[in-house]
TrEMBL record:
GO terms for molecular function: phosphoribosylanthranilate isomerase activity. Keywords: Amino-acid biosynthesis, Aromatic amino acid biosynthesis, Isomerase, Tryptophan biosynthesis. This is N-(5'-phosphoribosyl)anthranilate isomerase. Transmembrane segments: none annotated. It catalyses: N-(5-phospho-beta-D-ribosyl)anthranilate = 1-(2-carboxyphenylamino)-1-deoxy-D-ribulose 5-phosphate. Belongs to the TrpF family. It comes from Halobacillus litoralis. It holds the Pfam family PRAI. GO terms for biological process: L-tryptophan biosynthetic process. Residues 7-208 form the N-(5'phosphoribosyl) anthranilate isomerase (PRAI) domain. It comes from the Bacteria. Its EC number is 5.3.1.24.
Length: 218
């Protein structure tokens, strides 16, 4: 089994970026959604990235963005992936891909028709993030869904030839349980925080468990 994708999301300070960059995670995420707890200004991210020069790929998270909003962020930050966390349609995804030429990951909230939602975006989405469905929230809730559904999502994404990350409520105490379901990727934010900042010991605990799990089945 190949090593899973690990995205450490919600970086909103230089200190956060220093901690997440020091790990073996594959992706770092930044939230460009105003009025959210972890919103960051793109000019700040440019400063941090210039100073630290992460080896990880950079993911920008948006909710129902206009092309202008994405363009503004890209003016400051060279993103590797655009992640859409709202009610975007297939045509909106296509417009964003055409405008910027970057891979687009679509967030699917876990519910009965989750797989059908993935089918709608077949051939358009370049990856999926499966997150918990929480009334009035778009993500970052720290609440997990029923992980028995993970193989179903993973296999549906595999059939489309794209990666699938699992998000929502993942933390050092339960990461081993999730890894039993062999997700292709994991997406963490609140589970690696203490006092609203990234916590290096939690990050290290997560990465150690991921490495141990990969070693045990390879």
């Amino acid at each position: 089994m190949k090593e899973p994708i690990v995205k450490l999301c919600g970086n909103h300070s230089l200190s956060d970026v220093a901690k997440t960059t020091s790990s073996d995670a594959s992706h770092l995420g930044f939230i460009f959604v105003r009025k959210t707890k972890r919103y960051v200004r793109p000019e700040y991210v440019r400063r941090w990235v210039k100073k630290i020069r992460p080896k990880q790929k950079l993911v920008g998270v948006f909710i129902d963005p206009t092309l202008e909003e994405v363009e503004e962020v890209l003016h400051f930050v060279s993103l590797d992936v655009i992640q859409l966390h709202g009610n975007e349609t297939v045509s909106q995804l296509l417009r964003i891909k055409e405008a910027f030429g970057l891979p687009v990951w679509k967030v699917i909230h876990h519910k009965n028709e989750g797989i059908q939602q993935m089918e709608v975006f077949r051939g358009v989405a370049d990856g999926y993030v499966i997150d918990s469905k929480v009334q009035g929230a778009s993500g970052g809730t720290g609440i997990r869904f029923d992980w028995e559904a993970v193989p179903m999502y993973r296999d549906a994404a595999y059939q489309q030839g794209v990666p699938c990350l699992i998000a929502g409520g993942i933390k050092p105490q339960n990461i081993a349980e999730l890894l039993k379901y062999k997700p292709e990727g994991i997406d963490l934010s609140s589970g690696i925080e203490e006092n609203d900042g990234k916590d290096i010991s939690k990050i290290q605990a997560i990465m150690k468990e991921v490495e141990r799990n990969v070693a045990s089945i390879s």
